[in-house]
Design a protein that fits this description.
The complex is a heterodimer. By secondary structure, chain A is mostly beta strands. Chain A has strands spanning about 5, 10-15, 20-25, 30-40, 45-50, 55-60, 65-75, 75-80, 90-95, 105-110, 115. Chain A is built from no helices and 11 strands. Chain B is globular, with a radius of gyration of 13 Å. The chains are: A mainly beta, B mainly beta.
């Protein structure tokens, strides 16, 4: 089946630093990847849609200058949390849709990245 | 904002029992999906049901969809300890997914 990986799985950083999270589709090409944020015991909230070769589409309330997204290839999207603060601490999950597209396509999720900002 | 509300929020059952989770949504849909999330992990896709389907089975999973009531249910039969996880419904298909609030299922030995 389709596999999506994320790296790192866990990161702890100091306030003010930037953190980059990678999302890779391992056995399929993904023109579209999605970035979600999840607080403890809560549901996933979509942050942005990452499109290969074009700018990401951000959801309302998500700062594009704070959460930089780059989708440079059909298998890799990166999320950079710039000047991280403790309130950015969360579980970040990416997902990827395969190249075929379509309303019944499944999104395949990565294992998530736990970010802790001290 | 959340598209769906799920109930119960938490469910604790004994191994071997059946578990039923419900999901309600607000807007019209093309399909509805159910996902499982083990603690601190990513989501695993369980099943997709199209808007013109009323029921779908996959192994020990049974999903129903009532578009007139804008609701869906997930039934796990003969539960196992390994089924302990959070379960989310989601609408939106291959595009933007909107998740329900989730049900935390605990299956005890």
């Amino acid at each position: 089946g389709a596999v999506v990986s994320q790296h790192p799985s866990r990161v702890i950083c100091k306030s003010g630093t930037s953190v980059k999270i990678e999302c890779r589709s391992l056995d399929f090409q993904a023109t579209t990847m999605f970035w979600y944020r999840q607080f403890p015991k809560q549901s996933l909230m979509l942050m942005a849609t990452s499109n290969e070769g074009s700018k990401a589409t951000y959801e309302q309330g998500v700062e594009k200058d704070k959460f930089l997204i780059n989708h440079a290839s059909l298998t890799l999207s990166t999320l950079t949390v710039t000047s991280a603060h403790p309130e950015d601490s969360s579980f970040y999950i990416c997902s990827a849709r395969d190249h075929g597209g379509g309303i019944t396509d499944t999104q395949y999720f990565g294992p998530g990245t736990r970010l802790t900002v001290l | 904002s959340q598209q769906g509300e799920e109930d119960p929020q938490a469910l604790s059952i004994q191994e071997g029992e059946n578990a039923t989770m419900n999901c309600s949504y607000k807007t019209s849909i093309n399909n509805l999906q159910w996902y499982r999330q083990n603690s601190g992990r990513g989501l695993v896709h369980l099943i997709l049901i199209r808007s013109n389907e009323r029921e779908k089975h996959s192994g020990r999973l049974r999903v129903t969809l009532d578009t007139s009531k804008k609701s869906s249910s997930l039934l796990i039969t003969a539960s196992r300890a390994a089924d302990t996880a959070s379960y989310f419904c989601a609408t939106g298909g291959g595009n933007k997914l909107t998740f329900g609030t989730g049900t935390q299922l605990k299956v005890e030995l």
